[in-house]
Amino acid sequence: MTISQDLFSRAQTSIPGGVNSPVRAFNGVGGTPLFITKAEGPFTYDADNNCYIDYVGSWGPMILGHNHPEIKQAVLAAVENGLSYGAPTEAEILMAEKVKELVPSIEKVRMVSSGTEATMSAIRLARGYTNRDKILKFEGCYHGHADSLLVKAGSGALTMGVPSSPGIPEDFAKHTLTVSFNNLDEVKAIFAQYPDEISCIIVEPVAGNMNCIPPEPGFLQGLRDVCDEHGAVLIFDEVMTGFRVALGGAQAYYDIQPDLTCLGKVIGGGMPVGAFGGKHAIMDYIAPVGPVYQAGTLSGNPIAMAAGLKALELLSAEGLHDELEAKSKALCEGFQQAADAAGIPLTTNFAGGMYGFFFTDAESVTSYQQATECDLERFKRFFHLMLEEGVYLAPSAFEAGFVSTMHSNEDIKNTIAAAQRAFAKL
Ligand code: PLP
């Protein structure tokens, strides 16, 4: 028995499923999750002292690699002054100013403590601002686990949502409409069906929770136009894409301005943080200036602000995002060539510092439907073969992969060589 296996069985007696967030349990790939003891640069180490080239990056925030010395230093310096005050600090202003500078569609921003809180609050705000109850989301997009957002499409497109978890009243879920990602016709049809009832569209501008699916040309602009036409709020959930796809997020990469943006993970440099912001006319609708209530004891936590500010400063380095994208591209091309050579049908997607690969005969994957039709059994075998090779991929076929500035060309080359050996065994 490995130490991870031992820890996992012990964990299961005190923690539901042995984990504090479901995807960590390896249900998507089978086997025992690795228990991590430390992480440095592009590497994570497990309790059995194995070292892995890590493409999970704490599910996104580690764009600068693990345990960056300058972020660590910023955290240690902040800790000297106490851990939390529940009162305003200058660091929160600095963070708000930095976010506004880097993401110009954000005129005002409110800090929260997770991505879930960011999207939940943005939805409440959009509903309060428009005085409409319905929201529109896309099948396969994940926006955290707030009740309104944990909803899947009903049978067939263009239907009212049904809860995707027990505990969510149907009366809540019925206000969540769900259509297919990258399908503008469905978006227009549902607005035609519910004119003046839809408060907002919430979208991952590059979908990262059904593997990695970038928007097709014109899709995001189409959403902008539909929202303008119907007086609905356009919300970009950039919890994953913010500061990763480009310094200004996917909205900069694709040059589309949303009304509200949700941010997360990255602006804490690895500490628990989220934020939502946008046009001040909308943002001034929240308490204490406006009527929509939103709050948080640990919001704007001084340690998280210190880590995040340093992370954003380092992420602002000239050319950093071009380099990140070059790494995603090299990885995708390497995987593609290795799969082609082994006769394994594969296709890849990438945008900035996020990427995905799909075991499929399809030439490209642009929809949730296609993502779910890929060869999931082959993915599972590939995942475990790569783990044996010392490469830690996301333990699910429906998650994007993440590169960091710390992944060297050598790391990428070694990963591709490992993939070549793994494909040969598939
Ligand atoms: N939105 C997106 C796009 C995400 O990927 C996630 C989490 O992965 C969330 C929201 C929820 O963030 P958190 O897990 O911090 O609540």
Walk me through this protein's architecture.
The protein contains 14 helices and 17 strands. The protein is an alpha/beta fold. A hairpin with a 2-residue loop joins β1 and β2. The protein is globular, with a radius of gyration of 21 Å. The chain starts with a helix and ends with a helix. The site of pyridoxal-5'-phosphate has 17 residues, from α4. Its main location: cytoplasm. Belongs to the class-III pyridoxal-phosphate-dependent aminotransferase family. HemL subfamily. Its cofactor is pyridoxal 5'-phosphate. This is Glutamate-1-semialdehyde 2,1-aminomutase.
CATH fold node name of the largest domain: Aspartate Aminotransferase, domain 2
**What would CATH call the architecture of the largest domain?**
3-Layer(aba) Sandwich
Q: Write down the overall mean pLDDT.
A: 96
Helical amount? 25-40%
Distance between the termini: 26 Å
Observed structural traits:
2 domains, 14 helices, eight-stranded mixed beta sheet, Aspartate Aminotransferase, domain 1, pyridoxal phosphate, cytoplasm, 426 residues, EC 5.4.3.8, alpha/beta
